[in-house]
Amino acid sequence: MTQNNTADFNSNALMDTTARNKEAVSSELCESGNRLLTVRDLTVSFSTDDGTFKAADRVSFHVEKGENVGLVGESGCGKSVTALSIPRLIPSPPGNIESGEIWFDGNDIMAMASEQLQDIRGRAISMIFQEPLSALSPLHRIGRQMLEALLLHQDMPKKEAWRFAEQWLSKVGIPDATDRMFAYPFQLSGGMQQRVMIAMALMLEPNLIIADEPTTALDVTTQAQVFELIKAMKKKHTSMLLITHDMGVVWEMCERILVMYASQIVESGSREDIFSNPKHPYTIGLLEAIPKLTGGRTELKDIPGQVPSPFDYPKGCHFEKRCAFSMEKCITEPPPFYECGNGHRAACFLLADSSG
User: Fold this and answer.
1) Beta strand 208-212 with 125-128: parallel, antiparallel or unpaired?
2) Distances in Å between the alpha carbon of 91 and those of 47, 121, 266?
């Protein structure tokens, strides 16, 4: 059956399951009063001419109020798809949220109608996209787009909203902000377009910022300036889900880290646990791949092999073919998560004997 509306499609497909679990999940969330976001067993697939593949497979994690969580992993592992699923921005078709639960501030995202989703997008959940031109309209000036976002969610006069937006352009390091308000996106450099996206995401002071490689196109000075703004917002209990390849940024910005590989989260834990005591072989490989200076020379290590095709993920552990510690059951059985203490968890059979 073809559905034209993504929100209605996802909502109808999962309504029965959500209704059965809603009471139990709501009770659990009430017990954790500081929980802002809960994602449970999220599975997202895409249909293509070559077949259907899972971009996110049974993904589960949470974000506390005022917490910055990093989501790291190689390109194509499903990080952006996971992030886009939270405010239900997955295009359908070809995307389809097959199963799972998404709870935001005690509210069931999967059961929300289009009007409810529109109300929380931008105001309660803001997203900084990896490609700014995918979110900025090429037909409208920067000022008009920022003004529209403000007036949609804030009760303020147009002149005040215009000045407010202009101030935010200055905050993210855009020179001549007054003139830039009248520019079209194509008249700005890629770095400036990204700064506009960041300003639009931060200016409404959302509860959750989903940042997908937010500073890739920015110079180091502007990166630091943007991250200082985000840190200042954290004092107002704003949370962030940060998607990045830069482990240095994760160390600087995040209290907790999720490691994702080939559509699955394979390890999660505090920043200190992940960096000083990684448990999953993939996490160990990522950290060893960070360039190091040895005797005046830069030493580079890589992870042998290639990421498997999403059309042909292994039956067992998705990392099995690249893992130096692979066992027979890794080929046939998906490993469960093992507790490593203090909320540190990893999905690897190597931990079966050591897990409490």
Assistant:
1) parallel
2) 11, 15, 26
Q: What is the DSSP string of 83-130?
A: HHHTTT---TTTEEEEEEEEEETTEEGGG--HHHHHHHBTTTEEEE-S
Rounded Cα distance between 215 and 224, Å, is 9
pLDDT tens digits, residue range 49-63? 989 999 999 999 999
Cα-based distances in Å from 47 to 57, 170, 310: 15, 42, 12
Could you give the domains of the chain? 1-62+87-113 (no CATH), 122-254 (3.40.50.300), 275-351 (no CATH)
Could you read off the pLDDT of 81-122 as tens digits, one per residue? 999 999 999 988 899 999 999 999 999 999 999 889 988 998
* pTM, 2 dp: 0.85
d(CA 146, CA 196): 9
The one-letter code for the residue type at 140 is H
| Contact between residue 149 and residue 204 where contact means Cβ atoms under 8 Å apart | yes
DSSP lists the bridge partners of residue 265 as 260
Note whether 344 and 352 are within 8 A (CB): no
d(CA 176, CA 285): 44
Cα-to-chain-centroid distance, residue 64 = 14
And the tokens for 163?
Answer: 């000045």
- How far is it, in rounded angstroms, from Cα 143 to Cα 147? 6
Distance CA(211)–CA(270), nearest Å, equals 19
Q: For residues 198 and 124, what is the distance between their CA atoms, to the nearest angstrom?
A: 15
